[in-house]
Design brief:
The complex is a heterodimer of chains A (426) and B (380). Chain A has 426 residues and is mostly helical. Chain A has two domains: 256 residues, ABC transporter involved in vitamin B12 uptake, BtuC (Orthogonal Bundle), CATH 1.10.3470; 64 residues. Chain A contains 18 helices and two strands. Chain A has a two-stranded antiparallel sheet with strand order 1-2. In chain A, helix 1 crosses helix 15. Chain B has 380 residues and is an all-alpha fold. Chain B has two domains: 91 residues, no CATH class; 259 residues, no CATH class. Helices cover 71% and strands 0% of the residues of chain B. The longest helix of chain B has 36 residues. Chain B is globular and about 80 Å long. Classes of the chains: A mainly alpha (426), B mainly alpha (380). The interface between A and B is large, with 41 and 45 residues. Chain A: This is ABC transporter permease. Chain A: One of its GO terms (molecular function) is transmembrane transporter activity. Chain A: It comes from Nonomuraea deserti. Chain A: It is a multi-pass membrane protein.
């Protein structure tokens, strides 16, 4: 498919998705499915996941698997909280970045210099991150210290002093708030669109804008600069890169430290949202970010889609846990579309030879899809309220389904996770 | 000196250096925290003043080591063939709650009841590990990501089960949710008679020394025999070291992935049982979490061999036991987590360094014997 074709498919896909969302909202009666509140929450929740995913992207494109993202994110949250309550938002940002980068540096030393297995080093960092931050809290926030008087405890820092500034689009979502008015009419499609746009533009945190801009920036640096080419070549075939004079060690170090800094930035963001550091704040977002990156096929665009999906699922659950049951309807409709396509293809092809060879497998797939559709539809009709625990696992189940469906189309960097030593051809 | 002995010496030396370095790093941290490192290290060996508290300390130490050892074994079985079963955490929690619930639904003579509970735990753990294994062999899904996702699913599922379908009677004013109590015939007899043999006061807290210790020892032996002395163990090792070569010699890699993963999950299912059968008698919301992740560290430290894992589990349990003693000595107890993390990281680094050193020495030796000046390439 040509480039233009791909772009068009993406646009059509988004349009169909919008239409579906709008339909599901009308049928189920949950306005929160496309309300601006949900989308504002989704944006807020998607950003840390996306930042962690970007961290994963930088490391893995340079050939270093980074499951230590979670630990680096924890370091980011602690340092942001610690600097934030003393010197304000900007200091929190810098400290969080540095804290995450420190975790990245540790990972780089272990994996690049000493050739330790990447997963093992990541596990150790996930153990160390919470351990070190707990230790620091116990030392610096213990009773009787200045911090404790400012409201710190063993599990949380004092509130950061100056929250980051917010921006919103004038005219449309602020002041006259045209989008807000359009949204409250609940018209089909139009108010859905308005709700989504308003959620994404009204009262947006500066850091959100920054984080969203980091996506195209990453794409530009990794895919449009010489440095990016070298970095990706270190992830695809470091020995070839070495033979062309690239300093693979240095590249990997830079990539993994940046990766840690991104994870740390995700942590800073969480601190800004809750205005202070709280232990266990990351709640596995580093891992979800990693999943979003794999979901996005090690590409920034796909990563953004993955992060947006997880953020949306989370945001919807926060706003209205009943609305999550609409996912059943949504899934049923998607399966119906799939079935329709398959039936059309079967009717159109009519080649008996092909039917015999591919028939059995295709029929089982279609039968499974039909059964799944019926079950989902039945669930949507009967289940009013899912237990919270089932709602929490939505992103994880989605990841597993995506991996099951698409993992054979995913392509990770060829030398990802390979231990590289200079001069040793494998 | 024979090459094998050389390597073994290097390994031990590397581990020793790593542990010394870890202690040094933590001493720096303790000093920075304004405490006395010597007092901290004294706290690790301080089991209490009275005879009763000393035997309680020993019991707590052994009781902590048992689940860590089983967790290490579970992870190691996967590691042996380069399968990263990060999902031990989820597998053991789900297995523990199912076993606790099934065990509470009937009453049978002690051996039967306990055997059924152990079997249920192993089956649930194995089945839950079957999911990522099947995903890997049929659709090529990376087991690391799949097991991480399944961990979150299992953790949420257990908290739903303990609150909803598997919930038992909650005592008045009690905040913790719990499964129904196990009958008396399900409780594993403790090993307190050992203390009587030596004329020491038996421990009283936490159900004494859990009898599941014996099961863990047997399990360790079985895993050792299976991995080191059977065709299956050889196939596992061969697939891990060189997949294509194993395939060429007639080992089906798909079967091996499923077998190793299910075995790992089945062992993981037992991790929670010592606590449930030895002390609590039910699965409740105070159930010890995090053993699966610690198991990864223990397996790494023990180099995936049962004896090594036992030593690593004892070391970690020894460190964990000092939680209270450290608090009394006014040292932040979180220093334990740091020591554990640093030891793991340094030991794996030391492994790499000693491997490289041993290889270089061997190359020199080969060169000397062949009468050449340049080192000879020797396979790792």
């Amino acid at each position: 498919m040509t480039r233009v074709g791909k772009y068009h498919v993406a646009l059509v896909g988004v349009a169909v998705l919008l239409l579906l969302l709008s339909l599901v909202r009308l049928v189920s009666g949950y306005d929160d499915i496309t309300s601006s509140g949900t989308f504002a929450a989704a944006l807020l929740l998607a950003v840390p996941i996306g930042l962690a995913g970007l961290g994963g992207l930088w490391a893995e494109r340079a050939g270093v698997v980074n499951i230590g993202l979670e630990g680096m994110m924890v370091l980011g949250t602690w340092f942001a909280g610690w600097a934030g309550y003393q010197w304000g938002a900007v200091a929190a940002l810098v400290a969080g970045l540095l804290g995450g980068a420190l975790g990245g540096l540790l990972h780089a030393i272990a994996t690049v210099t000493f050739g330790v297995d990447h997963i093992i080093s990541g596990v150790a960092i996930n153990l160390l991150g919470p351990g070190v931050t707990r230790f620091l809290s116990e030392v610096l926030y213990k009773e009787g210290t200045q911090a404790a008087e400012a409201g710190a405890g063993i599990t949380s820092s004092p509130a950061i002093t100056s929250p980051p500034p917010r921006v919103s689009l004038p005219l449309l979502s602020d002041g006259p708030d045209l989008l807000g008015r359009l949204e409250s009419t609940h018209w089909f499609l139009l108010s859905d669109l308005a709700g989504i746009l308003r959620g994404l533009t009204h009262n947006v945190n500066m850091l959100v804008v920054l984080a969203v801009l980091l996506l195209p920036l990453t794409f530009f640096v990794l895919w449009r600069t010489a440095f990016g080419l070298r970095l990706r070549s270190a992830g695809e075939n470091p020995w070839a890169a070495e033979s062309l004079g690239v300093n693979v060690y240095l590249i990997k170090y830079v990539a993994v430290v940046i990766s840690g800094a991104f994870a740390g930035l995700g942590g800073v963001f969480l601190v800004f949202v809750s205005t202070k550091y709280v232990e266990g704040q990351t709640a596995g977002r580093g891992f979800i970010g990693l999943a979003a990156m794999i979901f996005g096929n090690w590409r920034p665009g796909g990563l953004a889609a993955g992060a947006a999906l997880f953020g949306y699922a989370d945001g919807l659950q926060l706003r209205s846990s009943g609305a999550v049951t609409s996912f059943f309807l949504f899934g049923a409709v998607l399966l119906l579309i799939y079935l329709g396509q398959q039936v059309r293809r079967l009717l159109a092809s009519g080649e008996p030879a092909e039917m015999v060879t591919r028939g059995a497998r295709q029929y089982t797939m279609m039968a499974a899809a039909a059964a799944g559709m019926v079950v989902l539809f039945w669930l949507w009709l009967t289940v009013d309220q899912l237990p919270n625990e089932f709602v929490f696992i939505t992103p994880h189940v989605l990841t597993l389904i995506v991996l099951l469906v698409a993992s054979q189309r995913l392509r990770m960097p060829k030398a990802d996770g390979v231990s590289y030593r200079r001069g040793e051809q494998h | 000196m024979p090459a094998g002995l050389n390597r073994a010496l290097f390994t031990v030396a590397g581990a020793a250096v790593a542990i010394v370095l870890a202690i040094a790093i933590c001493s720096v941290a303790i000093v920075a925290a304004g405490a006395d490192p010597l007092a901290a290290f004294a706290a690790f060996f301080d089991f209490g003043a009275s005879a009763r508290s000393q035997s309680n300390g020993i019991a707590a130490f052994l009781n902590r080591a048992v689940p860590l050892f089983i967790a290490g074994l579970a992870v190691a079985v996967g590691f042996r063939m380069n399968l990263f079963n990060i999902g031990v955490e989820g597998q053991y929690r789900l297995a523990a709650i199912c076993a606790a619930y099934v065990g509470s639904t009937f009453t049978a003579p002690k051996p039967i009841q306990i055997t059924v509970i152990i079997l249920v735990a192993a089956v649930v753990g194995g089945l839950y590990a079957l999911i990522p294994a099947v995903m890997k062999v049929t659709r090529g899904v990376n087991e690391v990501i799949a097991t991480i996702m399944l961990n979150y699913i299992a953790i949420n599922l257990t908290s739903y089960l303990v609150r909803g379908p598997f919930a038992g009677q909650r005592a008045e004013g009690e905040l913790t949710t719990t499964t129904p109590d196990l009958p008396e015939s399900a409780m594993f007899p403790n090993l307190n008679f050992f203390f009587d043999w030596f004329g020491v006061l038996p421990p009283t807290r936490g159900g004494g020394v859990w009898g599941f210790l014996l099961v863990a020892v047997v399990l360790g032996l079985v895993v050792w025999v299976v991995l080191e002395r059977t065709r299956f163990g050889f196939d596992v090792k061969a697939s891990g070291l060189n997949g294509p070569a194993a395939l060429a010699s007639g080992v089906n890699p798909k079967t091996m992935v499923i077998a190793a993963m299910v075995m790992s999950g089945a062992i993981a299912g037992l991790i929670g049982l010592p606590e449930i059968l030895g002390d609590r008698g039910a699965f409740n919301s105070n159930f010890t979490p995090g053993l699966g992740f610690l198991g990864i560290a223990v397996a790494l430290l023990g180099r995936n061999k049962p004896v090594g894992i036992a030593i690593a589990a004892l070391l970690f349990a020894f460190l964990d036991r000092a939680q209270g003693a450290l608090q009394i000595a006014e040292v932040p107890p979180s220093v334990i987590t740091i020591i554990q993390g640093v030891i793991v990281l340094l030991v794996v680094v030391a492994n790499e360094v000693t491997n490289r050193l041993a290889l270089r020495l061997e190359e020199r030796r080969a060169a000397r014997q062949l009468g050449r000046n340049s080192p000879v390439e020797v396979g790792a």
